[in-house]
């Protein structure tokens, strides 16, 4: 590819802005993935999908998981803290923990824990199932197991079991009664985990999750409640177990100023507690470290205006400054940066099945005769005479004529055929006006809406609600790119629709360098040719929060390691949900369904409306269908 083509690709998709160096485009016009920005190893995603489809017989959609990216993100985080600790002469250590709620998949958790010895990475859990899974995981003795969320006695007993198995467990108290229950369970069991208190800070984050912090936050103790907890610990002679102060001001913080303010407040609370004689060793700053989904490096809700190193420097420097001022020891810093740790490591690959156009290019030429209504004749005239000088005026005229067309149809003055003829002419005027606007030196902003309406709809074989639910639920931007054919200059402006029978199953907001695009430039769809799209940065929350809307299931999955010279190793394949799996989630029993269908066919045989051989074939077909994929084949 020449430099002009490469520049066009980067301008269109902004891959160098949001990919953090993990993804790029090669000279064949295909997207490649790397273990990190400087690593010479890579994999061509088009070649990888061809291998999985043709050789491994997997059907799309396919979720690609790259463990090397997980490892590199963890190392990026820990190196940033190591560098900041050294730069500012900070006395405490960094203890990263991975919040299982972000992505509880075993492959993800175990990949992080492989580095447990090197960087003390631990786990954070917020429910009994997460804790149950975490207790059995191998961690270095120096790492932490943080227990957040609301708890009952069974939760506390399970945490005590983890302590007895040799883990360093911290139960973070969310409310005063929770501490009373924990102390009661500890007395009964004879074992008490370390205790943390979550402070409800005045400071708040920024972006979609700003309400997670502040006075109205769901979690956390007020200042007076913290004092009551300390008094209760001392009364029960358990103050030595108070080891951690926790706070969280929200996920995906977009503005670095909010981080600085929160750190000042939290460090001050920690310092005042230390000055009372309580040996609190850890300050857990929670999550909040953002991911630049759109690459804009701004305070926009799908971005953030700082780098990882800048975030970490502000955390370390601010905490150190307050502690030095208050003359208290620097605490060990615990982080729960799950979004940053996991977002980049998965790519959902979907196939485009067909193109749905608002205006078809292959419409026959509209012929006008003397019997046509005047509105049709005038629309034909606009269509024939539109040019670069009059296209705005003629477009406005066409809009008025379309309204008149529908009014006359509703009054019964024109036929269905006339209405169809008028609509074709109207869309032709719109298409030609849009083309003239695109050719103008300064495109008319009025035609952005026309572009959106005329955009093709590409039907993609996936469920938005299963694989990218935040796109629908909160308008989260995820980068979308064709995995191949990027060097082609002829493109369609399109939006994406999924295979669910829900009008909200669509993507019509796309990453742009300066704004949010309502259409995406895509190589034109060709019938009977493979066409792969990638949805990127889905590794945080999307897998675990995906719903079973329409009973679409988990897609096929491949875990891939990148090797030298474009070679790759597929270390694990996880087959997606079958039809029988998904109907079971809705409390249907497959045996009951198959039995009911068989009874129906036997009744038809008995009634003489179906012979027995045909009935058995239909029964076999029904039973076999249960093992099929929930997606289009």
Describe this structure in words.
It is built from 23 helices and 23 strands. Helix content is 42%, strand content 16%. Among the domains are: 91-336, Alanine racemase (TIM Barrel, Alpha-Beta Barrel), CATH 3.20.20; 374-451, Methane Monooxygenase Hydroxylase, Chain G, domain 1 (Up-down Bundle), CATH 1.20.58.930; 594-625, no CATH class. α7 links the parallel β6 (122-125) and β7. The strands form four sheets. Strands 4, 13, 14, 15, 16, 17, 20, 21, 22 and 23 form a ten-stranded mixed beta sheet that branches.
SSE blueprint and pairings:
Blueprint: H1 3-13, H2 15-18, E1 23-25, E2 31-33, E3 43-44, H3 45-54, E4 62-65, H4 67-87, E5 94-99, H5 106-113, H6 116-119, E6 122-125, H7 128-135, E7 144-147, H8 153-164, E8 168-173, H9 176-189, E9 194-198, H10 223-235, E10 242-246, H11 256-274, E11 282-284, H12 308-326, E12 332-335, H13 338-342, E13 346-356, H14 374-385, H15 391-410, H16 416-439, H17 447-454, E14 456-460, H18 464-467, H19 469-473, E15 480-482, E16 491-497, E17 506-507, E18 510-511, E19 516-517, E20 520-523, E21 532-536, H20 542-545, E22 556-562, E23 568-574, H21 579-585, H22 590-606, H23 612-625
